[in-house]
Specification:
The chain has 289 residues and is of the alpha+beta class. It is 36% helix and 26% strand. A hairpin with a 2-residue loop joins β6 and β7.
């Protein structure tokens, strides 16, 4: 099937791109990597009045910047660029690990991290890491620049708090916990995740842990934080009993969906098993390098 007719616009600046979105009254869509948008256009699941191609705006949107404690990833940074970036490797190793679970090399060469956040797939790897690490989504619209916390940005399956006339210009991370780990389970390679998990925390010299963050994907209609599990582990030593209890507490913040890939019961069964193992891997990280 071919896309429905639309106007193709290639702006010369972010301001021009935003003006185009405003002129089309929320019916235009931004094209960056196109790994989600183009298939949806082809299947006519989306019929925008215009497609705004921002791929000529590398000077404004193509940078990975480290400023003080903050790391900002521009809207045109590809997965493969972030994966190979020394800045990401040093400052956001959890994000780098999660990128390796995304699609295949061809997808990672074209897809963008901010595009994934805009897509707001409840099983999306970048959305999950952004939530887990407390990132900020930077957007620009007719009213200027707006900053939205990842915790609250995702409001439903493939839905977010972005206004129709706004576009994401960057994803900003502050100081993150010292250690992180990521896990994803799908039926087969490159399939949508049945369950994905991201955990981050900082070990203390006395054996306790602080800044504990536990994120879950594919377990609700948005990526969610396992707040009860994190609270159980915050400031505590992580022995077997604590890890097992925290893994069970994660179910309090889960509302697993039922779909063609798995039942809600199966997802609920997988969650505590894999979360306990992932938390244990964080404890054992020095031994395993």
């Amino acid at each position: 099937m071919k896309p429905a007719p639309f106007e193709y616009v290639r702006p010369s600046s972010v301001a021009e791109a935003v003006a185009t979105l405003e002129a089309h009254g929320g019916m235009a869509r931004v094209l960056a990597g196109g790994q989600s948008l183009v298939p949806m256009l082809g299947m006519r699941l989306m019929r925008p009045s215009a497609v705004v191609d921002i791929n000529g705006l590398d000077a404004e949107l193509g940078q990975i910047e480290a400023r003080g404690a903050e790391t900002t990833i521009g809207a045109l940074v590809r997965y493969s660029e972030a994966e190979a970036s020394p800045v990401i490797a040093e400052r956001l190793p959890l994000l780098r690990t999660a990128i390796r679970y995304i699609g295949d090399r061809q997808v990672r060469n074209r897809g963008t991290l901010c595009g994934a956040v805009a897509q707001s797939d409840p099983t999306g790897e970048v959305a999950l890491v952004a939530l887990t690490l407390g990132a900020t989504v930077v957007a620009q619209g007719p009213g200027g620049v707006r900053e939205l916390a990842a915790d609250g940005f995702f409001v439903g399956s493939y839905a977010n708090a972005l206004a129709p006339e706004e576009m994401i210009t960057g994803l900003r991370f502050g100081v993150v916990p010292a250690r992180g780990a990521f896990f994803e389970r799908g039926r087969k390679h490159n399939d949508f995740a049945l369950l994905s998990l991201a955990v981050a925390a900082t070990p203390e010299p006395d054996g306790s842990w602080r800044d504990v963050r536990v994120g879950m994907g594919g377990i609700n209609d948005t990526p969610v934080l396992a707040r009860a599990a994190a609270a159980r582990l915050e400031g505590q030593r992580w022995d077997e009993a604590a890890l097992a209890e925290a893994a069970q507490l994660a179910l309090e913040d889960a509302d697993p969906p039922e779909d063609v890939r798995a039942s809600a019961e199966y997802r609920a069964h997988l969650l505590p098993i894999h979360l306990r193992r992932l938390l244990l891997s964080l404890v054992e990280e020095p031994r395993h390098g």
